[in-house]
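Quick one: structure tokens for this chain, please?
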Amino acid sequence: MKIITRSVGILSANCHIIIEDEGAIVIDPGGNPELIYPIISEKKLLYIINTHGHYDHIGANNDLKARFDTKLLIHKDDYEMLVNPDLNLSIMVDSQFISVLPDKLLEDGDELGFFDHKLEIIHTPGHTEGSICIKIGNFLFSGDTLFYHSIGRTDLPGGDFNKLKNSIKKKLYKLDDETLVYTGHGPNTTIGEEKKLNEFIKE
């Protein structure tokens, strides 16, 4: 399995592309589809997965869906954000972005197959009500829930600091310390690193 990350969109969100054999998954295509196309041009794009519904993580949904025969997935609690520019915050950047509708609404504990791998959906509300993390083996794609020595904002619609803190402590910090975290913005980290040094999540 190969993981390729591209910084996309006006807020430099991390779009993670997972490659296995002739298949691919795109997590958080927030913009710049021209940076994503070459990586998956010869692959079967199985899924587009949005970790949450903010514009900087969904901005290329429509381009990818138009180009590839694929399925768009998002947690059920962020469904409305896809089709509401006020909620997905595209209105704040002088846009009125409305995503294509999802093919599947995710819930906590859902599992998706990807060749010999299993994707586990972990519902982590706090940044948005429907924020998720995606676990594949010892890799975690954290969206805007957990960053390197930081956490996602909770001052936007649907944000709640206490929920975010609980999501991280009760779900993510239960994972192995060696779990490599691919974040929604900025550098990668590990669960062990964050448990030791993330000042936002303390007892």
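DSSP finds seven helices and 14 strands in the chain.
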